[in-house]
Write a structure and sequence with these properties.
By secondary structure, the chain is α/β, with parallel strands linked by helices. It contains 11 helices and 24 strands. A 7-stranded mixed sheet has the order 8-7-9-10-11-12-13, with helices on both faces. Strands 14, 15, 17, 18 and 19 form a 5-stranded antiparallel sheet that branches. Strands 2-1-3-4 form a 4-stranded mixed sheet, with helices on one face. The protein starts with 15 loop residues before the first strand and ends in a 6-residue tail after the last helix.
Length: 391
C-alpha cells in the first residue's frame, strides 16, 4: 500500500482560483497550468450553477480569486494541492475535495495503463469538468499528449460523431446511445452510478467495450475498474461493511475542514460511505451506507432493490428510495421509466421472487425520465422528498 490521506496543512502557500468557465480550451489550459505548477490551484465551477448555489460554494470554499479577480477573505491551499472539486453543493453545505497534482497524475496514469490506451489517442469530455469524472478526462488527455474534445452538455449525435477514441459516461448517457454502433469508441468508461446488467449486455451487443468504474472525488474518480483496483490501489472491507481505499490516488483533505478529513480516514485508509464485499480480489458494491432504507425494523439496501427492479422487462430505468411512512418508518419506493409500466402488484411479485418480501417496493412511481444532478447521477433528494431544483 502506498500513499495516504494527508491532514489539512496550517500554512496555505498557493493561490486558489475559482474558474467559472464552460468546457473548452481556456479551462483545459487552467487545469494544465495547475498540474504542472505554472499556474495557481483551480476550483472549477460550472457557469450553469444557480446564483444561490454559486454564492454558497464560494462562501464555503473561500478561493483567493474568482475568474482572476482577487476575492476578499480568500484563503490559499497547501502547496501540493492542484485542484479543488466542490461536492454536495445542491443538497447541503458544499465541501471542497483537495486533489494534489501527484494524485491526479497517478490516477490518470493507472487508468491509461489498465485500458492500454496509447499516446496520441483522444478523449471526449461530455461530463462537467467541475466534477471529478470530467476533470479526469482532461488529466488523461494531458498524459496522452493530446487535447481533449470537450462538449458543453450531452448530445448523442455529437458524441457519436466526435471522432474520440475514448469517452467517459454515466449509465443514463450510455442508454441514450444504444441504438448506434458503439464500436466507434475503443473504450467507454462507465461510472457515476451502478450499471444495470441489461444496459451492459445491450451496450456490448452494440459493439461497445464498456469498462465499469467505481470511485469518488476523494479517490480522483474511478479507482476500481470492472471490480479490480487500479495499480497501487488497495481495498478492504471494514467491520461495519464499508469500503476502505488506500493508495496514491487519495485526496489531500477537505478544504478548510480538518474535522471532516479526520472523520474520513483511518490511518492511510479512506473510509467511503459505500457498503461492499470482496471475493477473489474483486469488489462488489452493495450500496451506500446512508442509503439503507429502514422499513418495519428491516434494513433494505436501495441499490440492491433498484438492480432487481431494473431487470423487469417492462422497465427501462429505475431508482429506489425510502420515503417517510407513519406506520413503517420508511417505505420502499420504486421510481421507474417505462412505456408500459407493470402494476405495483406485478412489480412486487417480480421482486419477491428475487428479494425478501419486506424489500419489495411498497410504492411505484412512473416518470418520463429519472431526474439527474449536473454530474449525471440520479437526484435522490428530489426523488425522496419531492424537491424541485432551482433551474
Amino acid at each position: 500500500m502506498t500513499g495516504s490521506v494527508h491532514p489539512e496543512q496550517p500554512s496555505p502557500s498557493r493561490e486558489l482560483h475559482a474558474v467559472v468557465l464552460p468546457p473548452g480550451p481556456e479551462l483545459f489550459r487552467a487545469v494544465a497550468a495547475a498540474l504542472d505548477g505554472r499556474g495557481p490551484a483551480v476550483l472549477p465551477l460550472s457557469p450553469a450553477l444557480p446564483p444561490r448555489v454559486l454564492r454558497a460554494t464560494l462562501d464555503a470554499l473561500r478561493p483567493t480569486h474568482v475568474d482572476g479577480v482577487r476575492r476578499e477573505h480568500g484563503v490559499g491551499v497547501p502547496s501540493e494541492v492542484a485542484v479543488v472539486i466542490a461536492t454536495s453543493g445542491t443538497t447541503g453545505t458544499p465541501k471542497g475535495v483537495q486533489l494534489s497534482g501527484a494524485a491526479l497524475r497517478s490516477s490518470a496514469a493507472a487508468s491509461l495503463r489498465r485500458l492500454e490506451a496509447r499516446p496520441g489517442e483522444r478523449w471526449l469530455c461530455c461530463l462537467p469538468p467541475s466534477h471529478v469524472s470530467g476533470l479526469q478526462v482532461l488529466v488523461r488527455s494531458l498524459l496522452s499528449g493530446t487535447e481533449p474534445i470537450m462538449h458543453d452538455g450531452f448530445s448523442p449525435e455529437a458524441v457519436l460523431t466526435s471522432g474520440a477514441d475514448h469517452v467517459s459516461l454515466v449509465p443514463t448517457q450510455l442508454r441514450r446511445l444504444l441504438t448506434a454502433d458503439l464500436s466507434v469508441f475503443k473504450t467507454i468508461l462507465l461510472g457515476g452510478a451502478a450499471a444495470p446488467a441489461d444496459l451492459l449486455v445491450a451496450a456490448r451487443s452494440a459493439g461497445a467495450r464498456v469498462v465499469t468504474t467505481y470511485g469518488m472525488s476523494e479517490t480522483c474518480g474511478g479507482c476500481v475498474y470492472d471490480g479490480e483496483p487500479l495499480h497501487d490501489v488497495d481495498l478492504k472491507i471494514g467491520g461495519d461493511g464499508r469500503i476502505r481505499i488506500a493508495g496514491p490516488v487519495l485526496f489531500s483533505g477537505y478544504r478548510l475542514r480538518p474535522d471532516l478529513t479526520d472523520a474520513a480516514r483511518d490511518g492511510d485508509w479512506f473510509l467511503t460511505s459505500d457498503l461492499g464485499a470482496l471475493a477473489g480480489g474483486r469488489l462488489r458494491v452493495l450500496g451506500r451506507a446512508d442509503d439503507v432504507i429502514n422499513t418495519g425494523g428491516e434494513k433494505v439496501v436501495a441499490a440492491a432493490v433498484a438492480a432487481v427492479v431494473a431487470e423487469h422487462p417492462a422497465i427501462t430505468d429505475a431508482v429506489v428510495v425510502g420515503r417517510p411512512d407513519a406506520e413503517w418508518g420508511e417505505r420502499v419506493v420504486a421510481v421507474v421509466v417505462s412505456p408500459l409500466p407493470p402494476s405495483l402488484a406485478e412489480l412486487r411479485a417480480f421482486a419477491k421472487e428475487r428479494l425478501p418480501a419486506y424489500a419489495a417496493p411498497a410504492e411505484l412511481v412512473v416518470v418520463p425520465e429519472i431526474p439527474l444532478l449536473p454530474n449525471g447521477k440520479p437526484d435522490l433528494a428530489a426523488l425522496r422528498y419531492g424537491l424541485r431544483r432551482e433551474p
